[in-house]
Amino acid sequence: MQEIKNILVPIDGSKNSFKALTKAIYLAKKCDASITALYVLRVAYDNPDLVYVPQTQNELKKVEKFLNTAKNQVTKDSVSFKKKILFGHEAKRIIDFAQKQRFDLIVMGARGRGIMKQMFLGSVSNTVVHNSKIPVLIIK
């Protein structure tokens, strides 16, 4: 069995994403692993060089608040923490970032803040589960 040392937790500010973070903290403490919280800011276009518009800047302030809440939650449990913000399609960015950074595990909520939140498995988590080469733990 592969050792778990680096855990990726995609967060979107939803209750489910913070439940996933709580489970990731538990695992990180048991495995002596670090946690990286990732927020993917969806943009209408996939060109990260074009995102500096006032609306996006306001959204970035909200994102920083979510990430700081996550940091406070993780570091109070003495777990190593990093944060990252990416732009683009959520599932694609999560999968690509997890592979490139060689995470051992992705821990994420079953559904987030989007219109699909009433479904058992949201569109982002569903896509990540079915396309990631890295193990994914879904938290309900």
Secondary structure layout:
Blueprint: E1 6-10, H1 15-31, E2 34-41, H2 54-75, E3 81-87, H3 90-100, E4 105-109, H4 123-131, E5 136-139
Parallel strand pairs: 1-2, 1-4, 2-3, 4-5
Helix pairs in contact: 3-4
Characterise this structure:
- With 140 residues, the chain is α/β, with parallel strands linked by helices.
- The chain has a single domain, classed as 3-Layer(aba) Sandwich (Rossmann fold), CATH 3.40.50.620.
- 42% of the residues lie in helices and 21% in strands.
- The protein is built from four helices and five strands; from the N terminus they run βαβαβαβαβ.
- The protein has a five-stranded parallel sheet, with helices on both faces.
- The radius of gyration is 14 Å and the shape is globular.
- The two termini are 25 Å apart.
- About 4% of the residues have low confidence.
Question: Brief overview, please?
Answer:
It is built from four helices and five strands, in the order E-H-E-H-E-H-E-H-E. With 140 residues, the chain is α/β, with parallel strands linked by helices.
